[in-house]
Amino acid sequence: MTPTPVPVATALSVNLNKVALVRNTRHLGIPSVTRAATLCLQAGAQGITVHPRPDARHIRAGDVDDLKALLADWPLAEYNIEGNPFHNLMDFVRRVRPHQCTFVPDNEGQSTSDHGWDLAADAARLQPLIAEARSLGVRVSLFMDPAPHAMAAAKEAGADRIELYTETYARALGSAGAGAVLNGFTETAKAAQAAGLGVNAGHDLSRENLTGFLLRVPQVQEVSIGHALVSDALELGYEAAVRAYLGCIEAARSARPVR
Description:
The chain has helices at residues 17-23, 33-42, 61-71, 89-96, 119-135, 151-156, 167-172, 178-194, 210-216, 227-236, 238-255; strands spanning 11-15, 47-50, 78-83, 100-103, 139-144, 161-165, 198-202, 220-225. With 259 residues, it is α/β, with parallel strands linked by helices. It has an eight-stranded parallel barrel with strand order 1-2-3-4-5-6-7-8, surrounded by seven helices. β2 (47-50), α3 (61-71) and β3 form a beta-alpha-beta unit. It is globular and about 50 Å long. The two termini are 12 Å apart. 41% of the residues are buried.
């Protein structure tokens, strides 16, 4: 009899870009990115994510270094740096060597990430950069749309994980097509795991939709949440906001049926 897989404990990584965005509107150094990270980690978050874009409109190079120093005091917490490896990401990967880097195919001018990699077009040029990051001891995750057929190519390119781009799930919630959209994520996660990839997820996940996503999408190892969590923290405080998201994760874990 095949043993039932034990559901993974999904880690919460807090994306601090929006904290930096508010800080950058003035020259006072507040709100502090490192203080926000400390409060989130104290509340139980398992990781910190940043996405330093070339125009430094939110996270700056100094923030990346300051957070690296801070996380030295949190040996169980993971540091995830996102970005386009053909822009400025690899400079940070080489210098900082985070636990994980997430390759995202964003353009320099776009306001936020809005699509995953097209590996038919990009795999060949991604492969040497994936190999370089892994040679530095950095786990590589590829930002991907829910497309089961693309998971084997992600593995072949050398990735360790994929991060499911979840905006389409968030937008579909409550609509007639929501079930079909969510099923696409379920099937993509299964295809990724069958190919030997770990599965992360992120983008527009919130307190309203996180539990439902994790109930249907199996074995998600990490969710990266920024905009919604920081928005909630404006009303609730960092500690209460982080604990609310950890509660959403735990609700999914405890409710998932044993198969």
